[in-house]
Write a structure and sequence with these properties.
The chain has 258 residues and is α/β, with parallel strands linked by helices. It has two domains: 179 residues, Rossmann fold, CATH 3.40.50.150; 61 residues, Helicase, Ruva Protein, domain 3, CATH 1.10.8. It has ten helices and nine strands. The strands form two sheets. It has a seven-stranded mixed β-sheet with strand order 4-3-2-5-6-9-7, with helices on both faces. It is elongated and about 65 Å long. 36% of the residues are buried.
């Protein structure tokens, strides 16, 4: 397969190993409706086309779109030539659930993840390539420095698994770091047992000053002195599990009502 000249401005490193590509595609379990983000040269797409699925592609680069149409004979009607972050996901499969797959551009991978979380009612599964350190943070459990906002917000709604590492030599151009493929499977219960808007706010504020105890990092919420004496506020954010963040949200939500 002839490669399209990569656009460095897009932050894209094109996977150039068919064995890895097929392994990524076979990691999905839901093959009914699939959206591929940033297909580029179509190294994942060629394997997806062999399956009986409703496939859609979103690709911002015009050159890559032309390549996919001419070389892989892909129907242009299933390609969205635009920015994934601006795409209305509810319109893709007529509000039906779908899976996401892709070798994500490093410079927007966290934004892609946040959009997946925001659209979790539509997205049942995701298998994607991230910078290795980002993949670790997404899947990390509490108690380490790698555990943070991405970990808590993703794991609140998805089961996460780091599947395998991908050396930088398998990309064109090769990035300076290795990558990893992770799998997200949406949890059966779409709702968490707390005020979700407040939950997101608390998690983000807590980790913005992660070296401080919650008693200090959450000062801006103007909590009552009585609540701030609770033992949970002695902890730093990285020490709290997802369920403990949910408990913390319920405590604060009750306090804010008074």
């Amino acid at each position: 397969m002839q490669f399209v000249k990569p656009k460095k401005a897009l932050g894209q490193h094109f996977l150039n190993n068919k064995i890895v590509a097929e392994k990524i595609v076979e990691s999905l379990s839901d093959y009914q409706n699939i959206l591929e983000i940033g297909p580029g040269t179509g190294i994942l797409t060629q394997f997806l086309l062999k399956k009986k699925i409703d496939l859609r592609l979103v690709e911002i680069d015009n050159e890559s779109v032309s390549f996919l149409i001419s070389k892989l004979k892909i129907n242009k009607n299933i390609i969205y030539n635009q920015d994934f972050l601006k795409l209305n996901l509810s319109e893709l499969f007529e509000n039906k659930n779908f899976s996401i797959i892709g070798n994500f551009p490093y410079n927007i991978s966290s934004q892609i993840l946040f959009k997946i979380i925001d659209n979790r009612e539509l997205i049942s599964e995701m298998c994607g390539m991230f910078q290795y350190e980002v993949a670790e943070r997404i899947c990390e459990k509490e108690g380490t420095k790698k555990y943070g906002i991405l970990s808590v917000l993703t794991q609140a709604f998805f089961d996460t698994k780091l599947l395998f590492e991908v050396p930088n030599k398998f990309f064109v151009p090769p990035p300076k770091v290795n990558s990893a493929v992770i799998l997200l499977k949406r949890k059966k219960n779409l709702k968490i047992n707390c005020n979700e808007k407040l939950f997101f706010k608390i998690v983000k504020i807590s980790f913005q000053q992660r070296r401080k105890t919650l008693r200090n990092s959450l000062k801006q919420l103007n909590l009552t002195d009585n609540l701030r004496e609770h033992i949970i506020f002695d902890k730093r954010p990285e020490q709290l599990s997802v369920n403990q963040f949910i408990d913390l949200t319920n405590l604060i939500n009750q306090d804010l009502k008074y």
